[in-house]
Design goal:
Elements: E1 2-3, E2 9-12, E3 20-24, E4 36-40, E5 42-45, E6 49-50, E7 59-61, E8 67-71, E9 74-78, E10 82-85, E11 91-96, E12 103-108
């Protein structure tokens, strides 16, 4: 998980376990809505940083900011605090959207 944006975000390595909660819009990991309010452990990922590559990030969000998402070519807006699940073979990179000046995350794979 790469956060090249100007905003801090949150990720989880333990979706389905932990004392925190993650409101995931795509719990099955695809582009179809599949809402689950799941246990997790939220971990801060500061602006301009990268997650621990030795661990597999399961999901991400911006808890304080709405964000724009390009999930394998499908564009959507996500409300702050709404989590996007990514599968083990997928990668996500967040930057600043050139036109809107908001967090913009692209999921590939």
């Amino acid at each position: 998980m790469i956060n090249s944006s100007s905003w801090g975000m949150h990720i989880t390595y333990s979706l389905g376990q932990g004392a925190d909660r993650c409101d995931v819009w795509n719990y099955s990991g695809g582009t179809t809505p599949d809402w689950v309010y799941a246990p997790c452990k939220q971990v801060s990922l500061p602006a301009h940083s990268t997650s621990d590559y030795s661990k597999d990030a399961d999901a991400f969000t911006f808890n304080n900011d709405d964000y724009m998402l390009n999930f394998k070519g499908t564009q959507s807006w996500r409300t702050k605090g709404v989590w996007t699940k990514i599968n083990s073979w997928q990668a996500a990179k967040c930057t600043v959207h050139a036109d809107f000046g908001v967090p913009y995350c692209v999921v590939t794979g």
